[in-house]
Specification:
This protein is α/β, with parallel strands linked by helices and 243 residues long. Helices cover 43% and strands 14% of the residues. Strand 3 and strand 4 form a beta hairpin. Helix 5 packs parallel to helix 11, helix 6 runs parallel beside helix 10 and helix 8 packs across helix 9.
Amino acid sequence: MSSTIIDTVESLTGLLSTLVDLPITPPSLYLDVEGENLSRHGKVSIIELLVLPLNQVYLVDIHVLGEEAFTAANTDGWTLKAILEAPKIPKVFFDVRNDSDALYGNFGIKLAGVEDVQLLELASRSFSRKFVNGLAKCIERDAAMTPSGKREWEATKKEGRKLFDPDQGGSYEVFSIRPMTALIIQYCVQDVLCLPGLWSTYTGRISRPWAAKVHKETLRRVTLSQKADYDAKGKNRARGPWR
């Protein structure tokens, strides 16, 4: 799947015109956010956006575009902010909490229409739901990848982490270095590429009552992430909402 960097207002407004009136079942939009100390206290650098019907990943360069990334409108008046806040446009995240915190705290974005793959995985289990899984564990167990594909994903994740993880001598500032390096682009792209398959796997496993629980908890996650006392590094983040 190819990727495109969106770092001008012209390219952004052109993209916006492709993001409305898309199919909603399955969802068309899959997102992730990267930045420095990703939270209201940090900086949003890149929004990764997979548009499934177009088979294309867009890297929206928030570091370059700043506020204009969310306020620039296409000829129909759509902005990225309006799309992110539209409840009838489904947007799939993996653990939306810190992404929501960062978008709300830095740009006043009130996410709506969110579907959270981390919660879908938790709901789909036939075993303990005490703790949530990270993306790597979900890919290891449930991604429709070949063994070599999983090894490649893990290798990119490992190499990317060396660049930004302070514990490994890296810095989150790498997400704001321009031009983006090939490794950072690959790192960003691969995290959203796996989301459609995981979404499909987990939604296929859960009943309607569980789907309703996931929806309710996802709304709660977004609401809590916007509260003044939200802690992006809280010690209980790994605990699931259900037992």
